[in-house]
Amino acid sequence: MKYIKKIYPFVLPYKRYAFLNIFANIFYALFSTLSMIALIPMLKVMFGKAKPLTEVPEYKGLMHLGDFFNSYSNYYITTTSAEKGQVFTLSILIAIIISLFLLKNLFNYMGLYFIAFLRNGVLKDIRDKLYQKIIELPIAFYSEKRKGDIIARMTSDVQEVQNSFLAILELIVKEPLTIIFTIGGMVLISPKLTLFVFVFIPISGYIISLIGKKLKKQSDRVQRENGYILSTLEETLSGLKIIKAFNAEGRFSGVFQQSTKRHADFSNELMHRKNLASPVSEFLGITVIAVLLWYGGRMVLLEGSLDGTSFITFMGLAYQILTPAKAISKASYGVKKGNAAAERVVSVLETENSIRDKENAIVKETFEKGVSIKNLSFQYEDYDVLKNFNIEVPKGKTIALVGQSGSGKSTIANLVTRFYDIERGEILIDGINIKDISKKSLRNLMGMVTQDAILFNDTIKNNILIGKENASDDEIIEALKIANAWEFVSDLPLGIETNVGDSGNKLSGGQKQRLSIARAVLKNPPIMILDEATSALDTESEKLVQKALENMMKNRTSIVIAHRLSTIQNADNIIVMQRGEIVEQGKHHELLAKQGMYKNLVEMQSLE
């Protein structure tokens, strides 16, 4: 219950539905019992067992309520039958029974009606909160997590938490009340016979609890494996071309089948233990019924202390306890499963965001002087990515970062945008440490075009509007023209309303990249970060994209991370990096004259 309790705050906005559900369940339990007790007078009429009684019986208090009900039913049957006949009396009693059953089922429906608002409202709010947390957490969090596991927590785990709430309400309200009212009815009929029920209930509860002990652990294993299955599926869909190109279908099928086998094995164990609850509780219940039949039969046949009609109704009430008892055992398992799922959901919700705004963080809306990176060092795990890195990026200038893979170029882009936090050193914008600036206003000053053109399964228009939500169609078209993208977009049947497909797969690499540039152009930020924006393109696409980049970088401060050196020859300063350190810097012709690492890189690329 520890983690389920942490979900309770999500219930508070819907507490009125919880109270309405409880209210409806109280009356359901009451009418459920009354509908059974009402059978006694009807059976008396049918079997002619009503004792003649012509005077209204005296009510002698709550302790004698059973005797009063028995006497009053005899009085009613005697007087009504004498006046209007036994058939009329039977008809009235049947009408009362039908009314009681109608009210019982009406309140049962009302309880389910109200709980639906609570369950679905909680489900919605948890998913909303979880999604908000997912997009707030730093990128570093996801480098250690499988995407499929996060998806599993958002879907099946949250669904399990939702189901467990219904189980809790059944556990603490509906079914216990049904049992309490039913036992109350049994006490009215025969207190002596009811004692037998209390002897067996603790024994039954202990046996059922033994079955459910390992349920939480088994449920957690099932959910974890479900996350692994989703991760494997997500990776398969993302890398389908590679799988097919290398004829690796068999290998990936094997990995997937191993995972599904583990999931099936864990699920079998879980379901076997869960399914054991119902037959065990029913068998224990029937055992109680058998004992009651033996002892109650003696009271009717030998002692004469209980009449047959009351005994039949008592047995009906005793059997009626079995259904809520089974429901409670199932609900207790639901709580254990829900607790395991809630633990996985809560672990994400309670994850601390290491990259947070300071109190009273500066909202910076203008860019005046430039970007300064001073004494910057950064480690990933135990590996030094950057060591004592220093550069100045004056306003309106283009700075290019070049070097071999793993030299730390992309890390600079991630730190300037504060996707990761700085460990040692500082990054300043107009002399203000970026840690003192709110993340939102910091990123509003920047536009980014990455190596992988990230597009969403939506229209061209909506993909570009991410740069500026309230932009007009004319502004979008102007941005597409600057990005050299309007030439192909205008030829599409639906123009900017064309859907680009999953990850933009309906378009070529060059077309996707130019749409990414158009998105950055529409945002119109003063600082532009280009992270190897042309490295994945063919020569023809590269020229079109390079022209688009040049259009975009006019009058802007740009940090360009480049793999292809031909794209940064006009940069105001080229920084040559190796193993996280600056080894050379200067203009293109200055670096060539030095006959150093930059010239070697240029010569290697010219031979490609």
UniProtKB/TrEMBL annotation:
Residue span, ABC transporter domain: 371-604
A molecular-function term among this protein's GO annotations: hydrolase activity
Domain annotation ABC transmembrane type-1: ranges: 76-337
Membrane topology of the entry: Multi-pass membrane protein
Pfam families: ABC_membrane, ABC_tran
Coiled coil: none
Enzyme category, top tier: hydrolase
Highest taxon in the source lineage: Bacteria
Transmembrane domains' residue ranges: 20-43, 85-103, 165-189, 195-212, 276-296
Known EC number: 3.6.3.-
Entries under SMART domains matching the protein: AAA (SM00382)
Key words, A-Z: ATP-binding, Hydrolase, Membrane, Nucleotide-binding, Transmembrane, Transmembrane helix
InterPro entries: AAA+_ATPase (IPR003593), ABC1_TM_dom (IPR011527), ABC1_TM_sf (IPR036640), ABC_transporter-like_ATP-bd (IPR003439), ABC_transporter-like_CS (IPR017871), P-loop_NTPase (IPR027417), Type_1_exporter (IPR039421)
Protein name, as recorded: Subfamily B ATP-binding cassette protein MsbA
